[in-house]
Amino acid sequence: MQIPLQITFHGIPHSDAVEAKIREKAGKLDRFHSHIMGCRVAVEAEHHRHHQGNQYHIRIDITTPRKELVISREHHDKKAYEDIYVAIRDAFNAATRQLEDYARIQQGKVKTHDLQSTGTVSRMLPEKDHGFIEAEDGHEIYFHRNSVTGSGFDALQVGDEIRYVEETDDLGPQASIVYP
Length: 180
What we know:
Strand order of the largest sheet: 5-6-7-9-8
Structural class: alpha+beta
Radius of gyration: 17 Å
Shape: globular
Number of strands: 9
Number of helices: 3
Distance between the termini: 31 Å
Largest sheet: 5 strands, mixed, barrel
Oligomer: single chain
Strand content: 35-45%
Order of helices and strands: EHEEEHHEEEEE
Helix content: 10-25%
């Protein structure tokens, strides 16, 4: 990495052990994409439930020369991360998959036009930096602000026709690239 790894803690005190685990996992990312410029990891603890422990949210932003990949392991999918090390593991596993997929596309091993689908923007949540696409078959697909190419996320409106590349992870379907 050209830019040193950045780790931030929100709602949780700094932990040398957690930081060491993140540094270990981040150090292995270069194996999956040779041109990683930088990586930022945010560890957040939410204190909503009194009968359970903290729930952790891990966000990883990986910058490459042509794209920024955002990996966000949230518990909105009913999979609560009460173990911070499980949350870190799952987030870095997802980051590895996205880097491998992106590297295959960059190397021309995947024809991106074969992967593209069309759909309509069904919901926009600009305050949360994401939105949803209604696919041709009616199912809903999540997309993040950083997945939008061209004129960008802020130019999209509900009802806009778009093309996208869909991938599925443990949180369900998401668009890794959105073309307005």
